[in-house]
């Protein structure tokens, strides 16, 4: 979760961002984000923005709560992050 965010003080309507720090060789050719195990796709009108290694959720609602993970894939295989739990007040 973005370093400027307080994970214990996120309310409905707030914007939230996640960063995925990837250290791999070779570099990943694909990166995906998941919410409770379901892959997310960029959807600006729904407030879901994927760019490089970040995920932005605009104006979150209670439905946005749950576990978020990122997955990186390179020619050697794939690796997923530990889940980060998002709680909405």
Structure description:
With 89 residues, this protein is an all-beta fold. The chain has a single domain (16-79), classed as Immunoglobulin-like, CATH 2.60.40. The protein contains no helices and eight strands.
Chain-averaged pLDDT: 93
Q: Uncertain segments of ≥5 residues (pLDDT<50)?
A: none
- Domains (count): 1
Helix content: under 10%
Distance between the termini: 16 Å
**What is the molecular shape?**
elongated
Instruction: Tell me the series of helices and strands, N- to C-terminal.
Output: EEEEEEEE
CATH class category name = Mainly Beta
Total number of helical segments? 0
Number of strands: 8
Pick out its properties.
8 strands, 0% helix, 89 residues, five-stranded antiparallel β-sheet, mainly beta, Immunoglobulin-like
Strands, helices and their partners?
Elements: E1 16-19, E2 30-35, E3 38-39, E4 48-51, E5 54-57, E6 66-74, E7 77-80, E8 84-86
Antiparallel strand pairs: 1-5, 2-3, 2-6, 4-5, 6-7, 6-8
